Amino acid sequence: MPRSGRIQFVIRFRGDDFEKWRAALDAHEPARIRHGAVGHWIAHSVRDPSEYLAVIEFTSLGGATGYASDADRLDLESTAMIDSGPHDRTWEEATYETVDRVTYRE
Fold this sequence. Notes:
Elements: E1 7-14, H1 18-27, H2 29-34, E2 37-44, E3 51-58, H3 61-68, H4 75-80, E4 91-97
Antiparallel strand pairs: 1-3, 1-4, 2-3
């Protein structure tokens, strides 16, 4: 059976005020939708609650690339960042393509 992949724009960051960053992320939802985003999820490290991973799913690489270069979303980075942490940078971005996805029943 053929499987279709989605494109994920992944942000890994350290932040000390998640609610402030979440409000900024929510304010940019129209821009994500304009670029073809279909949803997102956010997790934080169980060992370091200041370390987060946000994954925004797009229907195309062009949409993810357009969102990545959208100047209006760059304030998300400055809203979230704090100094120090287990990795060298406080903000990292990358784009991935889903090659397989399985959903389990709860």
